[in-house]
Amino acid sequence: AQSVTQPDIHITVSEGASLELRCNYSYGATPYLFWYVQSPGQGLQLLLKYFSGDTLVQGIKGFEAEFKRSQSSFNLRKPSVHWSDAAEYFCAVGGTGAQKLVFGQGTRLTINP
Amino acid sequence: NAGVTQTPKFQVLKTGQSMTLQCAQDMNHNSMYWYRQDPGMGLRLIYYSASEGTTDKGEVPNGYNVSRLNKREFSLRLESAAPSQTSVYFCASSDTETQYFGPGTRLLVL
C-alpha cells in the first residue's frame, strides 16, 4: 500500500534561513510526487510536482524539491525563507494522472522574525 | 475563473442531523474528490469520481454518500451526522496531472 511519511510535525526557522522539509514515500510503481502548501483557514495550493525526468524540480515561491529514488524521498527546500512562508506543508504521492493521492501528515512551519 | 468552490464555508450540526456539502468546478475536469482533514492525519480520501456518472470509495467512506450530479458538481452527504465527522472537508478536481482544491467546509457536529 502506498504511504507518505513526513517525520517533522513542526519546524521553526528564522527568517532568511534555509529550509528543508522531509518526505519519505512508499509506492509500488513509479510515483507521482507533489508538495502542497496550506495557509491558515485556506485550501491547498500546489507548490511543485514530479512525474519523471530531471530529479530536481522547481516550484512556485522559490521552492524546489529533489526526488531520490534510492532513498524513497522527495524533500522540499528553500534557500531563504520569508515570514509569508509560515504555513502547513503536505507531501503527497499518487499514480498516473494525479488520481487518488495519499497525503502525509503535514509539517507546520513557523518563522521567527 | 473561480476554480473549485464549496458551500457552505462553516456548518454546525447536531448528532443525527443530515446535510449535503456542495462542490463545483469550472475547469472542465473529469475527476473530482472529497477529502477530510483532521489534525495530525493529513488529508484522507472519502470518495472520488473519475468521470461523470461514476463514483468510488476512498480510504474513509463510512457514514458518507456522494453524487456526481454532472461534470461540474460533486456533492457529499452525511445522512446521520456523528461527532466523529467533525472535520474540515475539502473538495478537489483534477486534470491528468494535478489536483486543485477548494477552500474547504468546516463542520462541527455536537
Give a verbal description of the structure:
The complex is a heterodimer of chains A (113) and B (110). Chain A contains no helices and 12 strands. By secondary structure, chain A is mostly beta strands. In chain A, a hairpin with a 4-residue loop joins strand 8 (64-68) and strand 9. Chain B contains no helices and 11 strands. Chain B has 110 residues and is mainly β. Chain A binds chain B through residues 4, 9, 32, 34, 36, 42-46, 49, 51, 90, 97-106, and chain B through 4, 31, 35, 40-45, 48, 50, 58, 90, 92, 94-104.
Keywords:
heterodimer, A: 12 strands, B: 110 residues, 7-stranded mixed beta sheet, 4-stranded antiparallel beta sheet
Q: How many beta-strand runs of chain B? A: 11
Radius of gyration of chain B: 13 Å
Gross morphology of chain A is globular
Task: Enumerate the spans of chain A where pLDDT stays under 50 for 5 or more consecutive residues.
Answer: none
Largest interface: A-B, 23 and 25 residues
Total count of helical runs of at least 4 residues of chain B: 0
Roughly what is the average pLDDT of chain A, rounded to an integer? 93
Biggest β-sheet strands, sense, barrel of chain B: 7 strands, mixed
Distance between the termini of chain B: 36 Å
What percent of residues of chain A are in strands?
Answer: over 45%
Q: Number of DSSP strands of chain A?
A: 12
**Helix-strand category of chain A:** mainly beta
**Secondary-structure element order of chain B, as H and E?**
EEEEEEEEEEE
Task: List the topology elements.
The complex is a heterodimer of chains A (113) and B (110).
Chain A: E1 3-5, E2 10-14, E3 19-21, E4 24-26, E5 32-38, E6 44-50, E7 56-58, E8 64-68, E9 73-78, E10 87-94, E11 102-103, E12 107-112
Chain B: E1 4-7, E2 10-13, E3 19-25, E4 31-37, E5 43-49, E6 56-57, E7 65-68, E8 74-78, E9 87-94, E10 99-101, E11 105-109
Parallel strand pairs in B: 2-11
Antiparallel strand pairs in B: 1-3, 3-8, 4-5, 4-9, 5-6, 7-8, 9-10, 9-11
